[in-house]
């Protein structure tokens, strides 16, 4: 993916074009939501400029990058007439499933990296089944 990562810390909102290569990308907008996809960048930019995200508002436990992400998602949901997600709902629906998947992938990668193996391509006939 190409783009910018918005993140919030004690120095305020950052827009980073690099440095997030090891992060997990979670799709929040379905491809058929064309109008929302077109507005997403503008909505996020406007949201990030709000007073709530000034550096002096940052608090490590209660007003942090997780809060920033969840508040933005809930703002978008509200604009679409949907109920806001609690921290627990957001974690259960979006964070944990992708974290589990990444953990399984990393475990498999570590196992493969420490063993001798080779990959045999399937015959064309087997691939078509």
TrEMBL record:
Signal peptide: none annotated. Pfam families: DUF4796_C. Residues 2-112 form the MKRN2 opposite strand protein-like C-terminal domain. This is MKROS protein. The gene is Mkrn2os.
